[in-house]
Amino acid sequence: MIFGRLPSGAFAAHAAFAMLVKTTNADGARGGVRTDCKGEGMANIAEAGGFIFDCDGTLLDTIGAWDRAERDLFSQAGPMTTDQEDEIHAAPIERACAILHDRYGVGASARDVLDHLDGMLLPYYRDEAAELPGAAAFVRAIAARGIPCVVVSSSPRRYLEAGLARHGMLDSFRALVSTDEVGASKQERKIYDVATDVLGCPREAVWAVDDAPYAVAAMHGFGLHTVGMASGDADRDDRFAGTADLVVSSYADLSRAMGIA
Questions:
Q1: Cβ atoms of 45 and 35 closer than 8 Å
Q2: Residues 23, 98: one domain?
């Protein structure tokens, strides 16, 4: 399935959205769910009007592959703070490569850094990437209910298409919204404006699922309901405090919250 591509620098015009959108066929460790919402006005995820999904570590189990691909790059860069690493991981891939080269002296050029990542990661997405257990079934169940879904990711489209197609998830998404096409990082409101416009439902009806605490915090700050995918990581679970409306450790948990058998 071929998806459209956003023109460089464009995000507000409806023409850009029309190029990006593919309409979905409406026919077609530690367990448990924790909510940080309290009180009578608590939002109910079972009434969600649309979903935003991260890809890496949320739909696909690719974090280990990224760690391996980045190990040599980050060793050249030297020690970094969590905020510095988050800035790189949130950025469009070409911007991230430029930061690594220009700011930290990694590689012979930014293009050299990008070629290193592509050489290690693109074959992995195409031939090896596993889904998080239950991810494909959950996404297909949501799409079958007629609830629109999009992916928002810092990974480039070529990685996303390869990995999601491998597990039969690609057709369940209305769009793939990649930071490199929008020209904004996952810490910027712009990319979530694109995603919610594509979904076509009010922002207050949108739920966003991500395993990265920095992304959950950003989306919470931009007024989205958020789900932290903790996957049994106690430290990460704690880092969702105050920003995730719901914290789950698996798609089984999320399915129960949605009332999906």
A1: no
A2: no
